[in-house]
Amino acid sequence: MSNPPIPTTAKPKNTIQSIADRIKTNQITRIIVLTGAGISTSAGIPDFRTPKTGLYDRLAPLKLPSPESIFHISYFSHSPEPFYAIAQARHPTTLKPTLSHAFLALLAKKNLLHFLFTQNIDGLEEDAGVPAEKILWTHGNWKDQHCSKCKSAYPDNMMRKAIRAGDVPYCLAPKCDGAIKPDVVFFGESLPEEFDEKVKLIPEADLMIVMGTSLRVAPCSGIQRMMGPGVPRVLINMERCGDMGSQDGDVCILGDCDEGVSEFAEALGWGDELKALWEEVVAVKEAKAKIDGNGGEDEDGPDLDACIAKMAAQMDERLGISKGHKKMLESHLSDKFARMMAGSRPAS
Ligand code: OAD
């Protein structure tokens, strides 16, 4: 006689459909989202760490002390040129929100977005319609700029002009020669003051969604672990990251973010609404870019690799001049030395 089945208390594993069902039945109403560069790659901004296509590999021609140096405050304070050389190709004026940004806006529209922590500085979440009060730009954004030395404000129109030209803008204050820095958080700088306040919202949430980030940069990399016990987490990313997928309630949709949010939206019955919202926000951004004079032929912005190659050539040229100068001095000195040794008067 066979033994009777042992009753199991194990909870069934979450799936994207079971999470969607809990949203549809109002069991999930407060969603915290953490995003990174992967949600903007389909808008044309490369992420940082994906081998070959990511910005950090592509910076190799600049021979920086490390790829991250370009965003390090101490490197910027003496060499702001590389940052401005690539700023033009990463500046958001011509960029349009992706389907992933529209998904965030839809969550907000349905009053489900408790809060969004974004590591991105492109501002595309707001362009897509996420209310600014629901967003913390943990690494700052391009909205304002100040002198890196005296902290004086700098006019928007002059900043835009400098970025478009790939030039370093310098402070207008008398006797200050500081380079202007957009209000983005560089390595070596503090996060916005609101960070500590806003992380207090995380334990109130009943779902965490992590999208398009490698979770390699603290303190944002810790956000995924600040949830209350048993709260489900959804990862929508090309690859696994952090400890996402290690907890019972976790669901991972691995692959392209825009496809991942489409799958999620279909499970929620929002597929058509998402697409319609996305088309609308893209059209609005295109129209705005035309009014601001950023549409037209160059609307995709300059090519990143071309900007890097141009900067690398300028740096090589400068290095060439200083090498040439050093060589000239060395030969001049050895000539002087030879004359002295020969007892003749050194040439001036
Ligand atoms: P990373 O480049 O480190 O990670 C991007 C993640 O998104 C990777 O896991 C990619 O696999 C994934 N990804 C890329 N494209 C994707 C796509 N289309 N669909 C789905 N996933 C995709 O970028 P972040 O994690 O945002 O900080 O980087 C964090 C911080 O490091 C940045 O804010 C920046 C950087 O240095 C500063 O500069 C201060």
Primary descriptors:
two-stranded antiparallel ribbon; binds 2'-O-acetyl adenosine-5-diphosphoribose; 8 strands; elongated; disordered C terminus; 11 helices; histone deacetylase activity, NAD-dependent; Sirtuin_class_I; 348 residues; 38% helix; alpha/beta; Rossmann fold
Model description:
This protein is of the alpha/beta class and 348 residues long. It has one domain (25-292, 302-343): TPP-binding domain (Rossmann fold, 3-Layer(aba) Sandwich), CATH 3.40.50.1220. The protein is 38% helix and 12% strand. The chain contains 11 helices and 8 strands. The strands form 2 sheets. Strands 3-2-1-6-7-8 form a 6-stranded parallel sheet. The protein has a two-stranded antiparallel ribbon with strand order 4-5. Helix 6 (124-128) links the parallel strand 2 and strand 3 (135-137). The relative contact order is 0.16.
Short description:
The chain contains eleven helices and eight strands. It is 38% helix and 12% strand. NAD(+) binds at residues 37-41, 47-49, 119-122, 213-214, 237-239, 257.
Order of SSEs: HEHHHHEHEEHEHEEEHHH
CATH superfamily: TPP-binding domain
The count of helical stretches stands at 11
Q: Main beta sheet: strand number and arrangement? A: 6 strands, parallel
Q: What is the top-level CATH class?
A: Alpha Beta
Ligands bound, unique: 2'-O-acetyl adenosine-5-diphosphoribose
Structural class given helices, strands, pairing?
A: alpha/beta
Let me know the average pLDDT.
Answer: 89
Q: What oligomeric state best describes the polypeptide chains here?
A: single chain
Q: Find the CATH topology.
A: Rossmann fold
Calculate Rg over CA atoms: 26 Å
Low confidence ranges: 344-348
User: End-to-end distance, in Å?
Assistant: 111 Å
> Strands of the largest sheet, in order across it?
3-2-1-6-7-8
CATH architecture: 3-Layer(aba) Sandwich
Q: Tally of extended strands? A: 8
What fraction strand? 5-15%
The outline comes out as elongated
Helix residue percentage:
25-40%
Number of self-contained structural domains: 1
Keywords: Metal-binding, NAD, Transferase, Zinc
Domain Deacetylase sirtuin-type: 9-271
GO cellular component, one term: nucleus
Family: Belongs to the sirtuin family. Class I subfamily.
